[in-house]
Design a protein that fits this description.
It comes from Planococcus donghaensis. The chain is of the alpha/beta class. It has 8 helices and 10 strands. It has one domain: Rossmann fold. The strands form 2 sheets. Strands 1-10-9-6-2-3-5 form a 7-stranded parallel β-sheet. Strands 4-8-7 form a 3-stranded antiparallel β-sheet, with helices on one face. The structure holds 2-amino-2-deoxy-6-O-phosphono-alpha-D-glucopyranose.
Length: 246
């Protein structure tokens, strides 16, 4: 795992954008694996700027997102489809039909998971997968206890994840109880993985990740099984590791 420590969120975001743009400039038909949450917002702002100011084009790029809430239609303001359209896709020249996110409203969740997993293999695997990390070490929506061999599946969200994502909803009870997520195995198939972690509230999780002990109880630790992972952390997220080094 390659570790890049930066000063703050802004620097993390611009460094990440540099790596994503490098990937696209090397191969304009790249498949990108994308994530939601607060963490990649700055990255997406930088990518939009790169498109507008430097003409970095996404015309031939395909994307697959990690996850979607079960029960929310793509038009729902809290769905990840809505998030991606608003925060990135609507501002760059990507073809919307080349962007993929699980359908949270699919009638049969099993069929949707199977369809999505097959799609990842059909167009992917991603050349570069962007990942954030939950405070409990979740990646995508793979909560503690998710087996390494998991593919796209429906999960029951951990109460701590629902609490922390409640900030995007008007009421905690509105946070869906389930989600569809790529599995650990689906994520690890990506050719390269770029993990972004920022802020003091993630310091404990970064410490646990960097301890290097692989455990189902901390899903991000499976990233140690991949040989092309870059982790960008800012000073605050790295603070507990730095305190140990002193
Ligand atoms: N499903 C998403 C993850 O893909 C994200 O990486 C993580 C961290 O979110 P944030 O970046 O807002 O801290 O939790 C969310 O629940």
């Amino acid at each position: 795992m390659k570790l890049i420590c930066v000063e703050n969120y802004e620097e993390m975001s611009s460094k990440a954008a540099e790596l994503v743009e490098q990937q696209i400039l090397e191969n304009d038909h790249s498949v990108l694996g994308l994530a939601t949450g607060s963490t990649p917002l700055g990255l997406y702002e930088n990518l939009i700027r790169g498109f507008k100011e430097r003409g970095i084009s996404y015309q031939n790029v395909h994307t697959v997102n990690l996850d979607e809430y079960r029960g929310l239609a793509g038009t729902h303001p809290n769905s990840y489809r809505y998030f991606m359209n608003k925060k990135l896709f609507g501002h760059i020249d990507i073809k919307l039909e080349n962007t993929h996110i699980p359908n949270g409203k699919a009638k049969s969740v099993e069929a949707e998971c199977a369809r999505y997993e097959a799609l990842i293999h059909e167009i992917g695997p991603p050349d570069l997968q962007i990942l954030g990390m939950g405070m409990n070490g979740h990646i995508g929506f793979n909560e503690p206890g998710t087996p390494e061999k998991s593919v796209t599946h429906c999960v029951s969200l951990d109460p701590s994840t629902r609490n922390s994502n409640a900030r995007f909803f008007s009421d905690r009870d509105e946070v869906p109880t389930h989600a569809i997520t790529m599995g650990i195995e689906s994520i690890l198939k990506s050719k390269q993985i770029l993990v972004l972690v920022s802020g003091k509230n993630k310091a404990q999780a970064v410490k646990r990740l960097l301890a290097g002990r692989i455990s189902e109880q901390f899903p991000a630790s499976f990233l140690w099984k991949h040989n092309h992972v870059t982790l960008i952390v800012d000073k605050e997220a790295y603070s507990l590791v730095a305190a140990n080094e002193e």
